Amino acid sequence: MTFERKPDVVSKGAQKCFLSFAEDIGKRWDGAGGETFHEDYFRDAVAKTILFRWTDTMVGKADWYKADRGYKANIVTYTVAWLVNYLEHSRKSRIDLQKIWQSQGLSDELEEALARCAPEVAREIKSAPPEIENISEYCKRQACWAAVKKLQITVGVDLAESTIDREEQKQRTKEASDEGKFGKEVEFDVFLVELSPHASEIRIFAEKRNLLSPKAAKSLAKMA
To answer: Rounded CA gap, 153 and 158, in Å?
Structure first.
């Protein structure tokens, strides 16, 4: 949810965050089936975890955080979400998660960008409107994310080596999806070849139990 730029949802806790995540996954599955969840999808998920954990550690060790502790989980999710949102709107690019996967770590420039953003985000979160008494509750509101999104933070690094153009990323995702689809088709073809010596037996067994559609029966008849 952080990389979907929903830090307010993440701040609502693990259960509500998971429910929102599950709903999002369900919509993707209904829209494109299993083709959405190709190999790159899972590599990206690992890369996101690496980035998130690095940011969490960085914030926890920072002098500015030690001087005024609290709300670390909120600071981390809002920091990452701010950078993702900044890249999307200001540079029309995205963090290159495949590079993080390949190196199993963050580039120096990406680390620097996150380190620069975090204290600014923390300051904004803790500067809640006067009527807000509970910062944790404030972080659960869309109003908090709306305020953080408006921050004008000087990232200070180019990030060209750590990002990928938005359109290029879309093309990469499409290719990964097509490759996954092709892989499944090949696996199914191999399965059918292995199945063919038993096609006649399978057809007889299935017909007796009314398990075959006319199309399936015709296909098995051709294989027999």
So the answer is: 13
